[in-house]
């Protein structure tokens, strides 16, 4: 009977008994260390096992033919083996580290990230507007970072020996052609855009991506909020004006609007400055962001408009009655962008911007009217081939139409130019391991105005030296056309050129971050001319050159001292250049050798208050003393300013805010103006170029009405 049953089973279930196959092997990491606890299984079955302390595994399966064996373990990339199960014996499997881990190296040379979504942020969105010396201007906050130079009378970003025109600003990846409000000499400007609508900022002091061009020194990338957290209304009543903002949310869309009005008339009536104002500065502005989800994509439309007007008389050593200056400006900027993740690892981005700017300037008897129409169009594709290789490429077009009417008793001229630039770029991110990454790119640009094609290679490299530290290197070529003050007179030029060499060390752990960076910039093809103030008879050439080199240090710590967050920035700059009307290479008047910033913020629970402190120092800047031989041979005294602010929470959504810039009223000198002719003794008289005011006081009340009853505007102060 037993023999009959066994015979029956052998006949009925031969495949079952003969198909039992043993799958075995050893799992190790890339250093040959056994991996304990790795999951090993055949896809689509319940057959599998885990590796033991020696990395070994073994299990049986009844599957036959070609199957997929998957091996996975936390912090490693899953590995798949597709083969006949009969060959899956004594396998030697090496797992690769998962490069999506937060511990993976990042390219950091030349770039500062500020945003909650970045892997390593040196600043948060809150910091952009709570810095005491910034007065709510994101540019003012960035001037506390290393690599920037203190040029108090200007207000724009001067980066690593470059003048302000060498830095370009982008919103959602699209160029902003007129990022600053126009102003008078010796009166600092401000960025046009409020920080209310941005949640991420990347400030690159050099070596930036091949995606961006037409900037010799730096790019500043501003990203608008993708999705607001809730509906809310913000109300601001300030000593210099007022503001109103509102955000409305729907199921798949949202709209944020912000409007403000500033009038310095009442302030100047109480606290007069050194200028004789006929009409104090007045501006009205508004901006909005509309967001719409379309399937897996996101459409964002941003728009901003502002108008400003003022008139004053400024002291002038050559005109006893002073120089009359009046300005009226209207500026409109809009951009639209659409991004979507497609199938098979593809992402598409398309966008464009349009800028209209109209400025009327009156200087004594001269009247100047500038009109600019500019546009930027961009299409970009990104392919994610794997966690270790991503390719980014695209094309873009810049268009500028600039016209100027110049009218005074001696000259009546119409100037202008049309400038079209076509560009293409490609860039690859290659992550070899958690410790080693490479970014390699190239950018090509064709100028229709100059009939010139330029090629800009870019490369960045990063190596992780420890769990919390890394070393980065970067090199790049950068081209930029001259600005409108040159192109309106001539187009017989070439693009200006720099080469960047950067080495960066970064440590980040336990709410502390330290950065040290050395760099060298080499300038060629800078524009020179033979007159102090160019005109239609000026001779322009591309025979200027120069260099900038230095050391930048940054330390931030919000862990060591309870309720205190602080950062310290220091920059050393050595630079000389021959450009404009310089007779030879010299240190330009906007560059100082040493810059130091110390920023601290202290939260006091018992007072329901945040107190801010900001100190800035800049060593003396060069000027030409006409009473001694030489050019830019003297230096002013150093710049000093200590600022304080105080935000008091009256209630969760009501804030009283006050700030004082330059608390100790340091007498800072921006430079000197000399008389055009000497006196009877052969000496040129001079006067100090002083700020319009040594101090600035600000008081405001800010009220937020939100869905949750908890949100407030501390983020924006």
What would you say this structure looks like, in words?
With 717 residues, the protein is mainly β. The protein has 6 helices and 38 strands. The protein has a 22-stranded antiparallel beta barrel. Strands 8-11-12-9-10 form a 5-stranded mixed sheet, with no helix packed on it. The longest helix has 11 residues, at 2-12. The model is unreliable at 8-17 and 114-121 (pLDDT under 50).
Evaluate the radius of gyration.
Answer: 31 Å
- Which structural class fits the helix and strand makeup? mainly beta
What is the percentage of strand-forming residues? over 45%
What is the count of β-strands?
A: 38
Helix % is under 10%
Summarize the structure.
It is built from six helices and 38 strands.
Layout of strands and helices, then pairs:
Elements: H1 2-12, H2 14-18, E1 21-28, E2 39-42, E3 48-50, E4 56-61, E5 66-72, E6 79-84, E7 91-94, E8 111-115, H3 125-130, H4 138-142, E9 167-171, E10 174-176, E11 198-204, E12 218-224, E13 232-238, E14 241-249, E15 253-263, H5 265-270, E16 276-294, E17 297-316, E18 319-341, E19 346-363, E20 366-386, E21 389-407, E22 412-433, E23 436-447, E24 452-466, E25 469-480, H6 484-487, E26 496-509, E27 512-529, E28 540-557, E29 564-578, E30 594-604, E31 609-618, E32 622-623, E33 634-635, E34 639-651, E35 654-661, E36 671-674, E37 686-689, E38 696-706
Parallel strand pairs: 1-7, 9-12
Antiparallel strand pairs: 1-4, 2-3, 2-5, 5-6, 8-11, 9-10, 11-12, 13-14, 13-38, 14-15, 15-16, 16-17, 17-18, 18-19, 19-20, 20-21, 21-22, 22-23, 23-24, 24-25, 25-26, 26-27, 27-28, 28-29, 29-30, 30-31, 31-34, 32-33, 34-35, 35-38, 36-37
């Amino acid at each position: 009977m037993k023999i009959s049953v066994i015979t029956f089973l052998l006949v009925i279930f031969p495949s079952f008994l003969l198909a039992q196959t043993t799958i075995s092997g050893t799992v190790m990491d890339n250093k040959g260390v056994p991996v304990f606890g790795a999951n090993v299984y055949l896809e689509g079955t319940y057959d599998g096992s885990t590796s033991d302390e020696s990395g070994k595994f073994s299990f049986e399966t009844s599957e036959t033919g070609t199957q997929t064996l998957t091996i996975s373990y936390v912090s490693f990339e899953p590995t798949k083996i597709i083969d006949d199960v009969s060959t899956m014996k004594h396998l030697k499997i090496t797992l690769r580290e998962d490069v999506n881990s937060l511990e993976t190296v990042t390219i950091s040379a030349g770039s500062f990230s500020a945003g909650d979504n970045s892997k390593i942020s040196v600043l948060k969105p809150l910091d952009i507007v709570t810095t005491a010396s910034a007065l709510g201007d994101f540019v003012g906050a960035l001037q506390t970072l290393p690599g920037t130079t203190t040029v108090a009378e200007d207000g724009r970003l001067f980066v690593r020996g470059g003048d302000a025109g060498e830095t370009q600003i982008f919103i959602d990846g699209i160029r902003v052609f007129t990022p600053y409000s126009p102003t008078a000499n010796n009166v600092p400007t401000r960025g046009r855009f409020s920080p209310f609508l941005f949640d991420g900022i990347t400030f690159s002091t050099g070596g930036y991506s091949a995606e961006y061009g037409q900037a010799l020194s730096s790019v500043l990338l501003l990203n608008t909020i993708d999705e607001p957290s809730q509906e809310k209304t913000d109300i601001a009543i300030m000593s210099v004006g007022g503001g109103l903002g509102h955000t409305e949310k729907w199921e798949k869309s949202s709209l944020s609007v912000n409007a403000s009005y500033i009038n310095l008339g009442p302030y100047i009536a109480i606290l007069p400055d050194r200028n004789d104002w006929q009409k104090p500065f007045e501006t009205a502005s508004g901006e909005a962001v509309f967001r719409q989800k379309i399937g897996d994509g996101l459409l964002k439309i941003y728009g901003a408009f502002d108008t400003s007007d003022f008139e004053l008389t400024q002291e002038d050593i050559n005109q006893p009655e002073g120089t009359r200056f009046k300005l009226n400006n209207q500026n409109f900027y809009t951009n639209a962008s659409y991004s979507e993740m497609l199938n098979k690892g593809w992402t598409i981005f398309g966008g464009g911007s349009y800028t209209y700017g109209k400025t009327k300037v009156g200087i004594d008897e001269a009247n100047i009217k500038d009109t600019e129409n500019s546009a930027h169009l961009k299409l970009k594709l990104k392919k994610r081939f794997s966690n270790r290789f991503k390719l980014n490429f695209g094309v873009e077009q810049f268009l500028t139409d600039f016209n100027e009417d110049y009218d005074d008793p001696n000259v009546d001229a119409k100037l202008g130019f049309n400038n079209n630039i076509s560009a293409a770029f490609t860039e690859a991110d290659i992550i070899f391991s958690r410790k080693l990454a490479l970014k390699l790119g190239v950018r090509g640009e064709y100028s229709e105005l100059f009939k010139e094609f330029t090629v800009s290679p870019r490369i960045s490299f990063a190596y992780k030296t420890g769990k919390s530290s890394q070393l980065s290197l970067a090199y790049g070529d950068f081209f930029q056309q001259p600005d409108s003050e040159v192109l309106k007179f001539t187009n017989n030029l070439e693009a200006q050129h720099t080469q960047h060499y950067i080495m960066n060390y970064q440590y980040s752990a336990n709410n502390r971050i330290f950065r040290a960076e050395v760099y060298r910039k080499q300038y060629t093809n800078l524009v020179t001319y033979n007159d102090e103030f160019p005109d239609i008879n000026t001779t322009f050439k591309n025979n200027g050159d120069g260099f900038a080199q230095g050391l930048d240090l940054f330390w931030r710590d919000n862990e060591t001292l309870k309720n205190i967050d602080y950062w310290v920035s220091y920059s050393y700059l050595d630079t000389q250049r021959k450009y404009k009307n310089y007779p030879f290479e010299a240190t330009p008047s906007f560059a100082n050798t040493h810059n130091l910033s110390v920023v601290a913020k202290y939260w006091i629970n018992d007072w329901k208050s945040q107190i801010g402190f900001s100190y800035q120092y800049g060593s003396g800047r060069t000027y030409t003393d006409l009473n001694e031989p030489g050019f830019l041979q003297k230096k002013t005294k150093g710049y000093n300013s200590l600022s304080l602010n105080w935000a008091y929470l009256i209630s969760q959504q009501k804030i009283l805010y006050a700030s004082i810039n330059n608390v100790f009223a340091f007498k800072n000198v921006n430079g000197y103006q000399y008389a055009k002719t000497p006196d009877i003794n052969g000496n040129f008289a001079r006067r100090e170029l002083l700020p319009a005011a040594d101090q600035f006081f600000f008081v405001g009340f800010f009220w937020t009405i939100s869905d949750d009853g908890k949100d407030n505007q501390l983020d924006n102060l």
